[in-house]
Amino acid sequence: MVAGALLALALVHPVPTAAAPPSARLEDVLALAGRYVARLEEELAVLVADETYTQSLFIGRESSARQRRSLASDVAWVPTGDAMVWAFFRDLREMDGASVRDREARLEQLFPAGMTPAGSDRAQEILEESSRYNLGRRRTVNSPTIALSFLHPRNQARFSFRLVGQDDKEGVATWKLRLAEKDRPTLTRTSRGEDVPARGLLWIEAGRGALVASRLEMSPRGLGPVSIETSYAPDDRMGAWLPREMREAYGNRSRSGGDERVEAVARYSAWRRAQVEVQPIIPVP
User: Fold this and answer.
1) What is the model's pTM?
2) In Å, how far are 4, 66, 82, 136 from 57, measured between CA atoms?
3) How far is CA 108 from CA 78, 98, 100, 133, 277, in A?
4) CA 94, CA 206: separation in Å to the nearest integer?
5) 133-174 residue pLDDT tens
6) Mind spelling out the 3-state secondary structure of 68-104?
7) Domain edges within the chain
8) Do 261 and 249 meet the contact criterion of CB atoms below 8 Å apart?
9) Which CATH architecture has domain 26-273?
């Protein structure tokens, strides 16, 4: 489905801007955002973080959740070199406070020098294994960073964009863009290879082009309407805006009949560079 190790950072410093310019052209906003995302791809390698993820399952018109679940995972954000730009992998550690595996850094160990075919295959296995614990239908589309891939220069032509105004978001002045995916095949597809076009809103920092927030909607067959909202926060150590929170909803918004709906909130902390310690092997005399 939806498919970065930091080297030293010459990324733009994410200091909030005071006010948006009085006017802007769409092509200038897209060029600024594209340069920012391209720098992320260039200068960020594999990043890892801690994720806490709460999910609630509703059936039909129920106003109270039928089931709730709390998950804690290691996550890795890895550049792919392909159209999707980055992959986002999740490795579950705990469910409802109980350990489901040891606390070893499995994802970090897979990508010491970036994406490799073997590492990608194993990470995908771990992601599929972890997705079994999601409430509702199986899914791996729940990535907070997908909108960044849409803004990459090699992907912008796949979408139609419209500048719809200015907004204050996350404490900074932003340009607000509406997007709709028009090319086929789409970047996100079902496990059966069916196209899942994305549409939504993006908030771009007026001064530097960073993605500050996104709201995406998709309608994959068999899963119902999907909405994914991500808010970012400036990380001074990493020199970039990184995901802080993701809010999701899967299923029929009207909660009619026996349809199920999942609502979820994921929060991210301790973003850091992936590091794998290499222990020297000392021969025994």
Assistant:
1) 0.80
2) 32, 6, 34, 7
3) 10, 22, 18, 21, 10
4) 39
5) 777 776 667 889 999 999 999 999 999 999 999 999 999 999
6) EEEEEEEEEEEECCCCCCEEEEEEEEEECCEECCCCC
7) 26-273
8) yes
9) Clam (2.50)
